Amino acid sequence: MNVLMLMLLLWYNYSIIYSHITVKGLGNKRSLIHGRKQKNISKCVLNETLTNDYEILSSAVSESKYIFTARVLSVRKIKRGSKPHVRVNISYKLYIRLIMKGDVHELKSHVFVGDERTLNGAIVFVDWLRTNKCAYKLYRHSSGIFLSDGFYESYGRRTPRLRLLYEPLPLSLYDLDRVNAALKGKYYFVLSVMPLCVALEGVFKL
């Protein structure tokens, strides 16, 4: 009986020590992974992109000849040159959803099929020279907002292609609101609720 109790006691102590070491190890591993993620994110936080800077977005909207939403049918990445001067060109085949800015009749002569009035469902080819590694990336079947300064004659291609001014934006209500505000010439800002609550609480205490 005493031997059995001793074995149970040893097993219990072993279980506690093992679980403590396992949890501690997982915690250290998670901290390491989190630290790596934070390190990778911090490199991009300081970079100014359309997603983070409204002033840049407002300028890009005013410079754009066409702004539209579309779904990505295919993506092709082409690298030219050697490090550290590699040029990365991204070529998109897009399914147009909505024209937000631009002459539909002028755009119609360079697209395939689609509704004649709205160009909804039209197919268009778009090229973009990626200059920022932190820019938002679109993949096949994802959707985005595209800003272009017009068509250009691509070397060796019969079909004119749209050239993007900046990186595409994600198709979200937040970014649609920002683009619409820039189109209307309004200043877009986000009001933080927490500082407002703290300020009101201080006023009422006085």
Q: Can you describe this structure?
A:
With about 210 residues, the chain is an alpha+beta fold. It has a domain of about 140 residues: OB fold (Dihydrolipoamide Acetyltransferase, E2P), CATH 2.40.50.120. About 40% of the residues lie in helices and about 25% in strands. Strands 1-2-3-5-4 form a five-stranded mixed beta barrel. A hairpin with a 6-residue loop joins strand 1 and strand 2. Helix 2 packs across helix 4. The protein is elongated and about 90 Å long. It starts with a helix and ends with a helix. The C terminus is likely disordered. Keywords: Signal. It comes from Pieris macdunnoughi. This is LAGLIDADG homing endonuclease. InterPro entries: TIMP-like_OB-fold (IPR008993).
Structure characteristics:
206 residues, alpha+beta, OB fold (Dihydrolipoamide Acetyltransferase, E2P), 5-stranded mixed β-barrel, 5 helices, 6 strands, elongated, disordered C terminus, LAGLIDADG homing endonuclease, TIMP-like_OB-fold
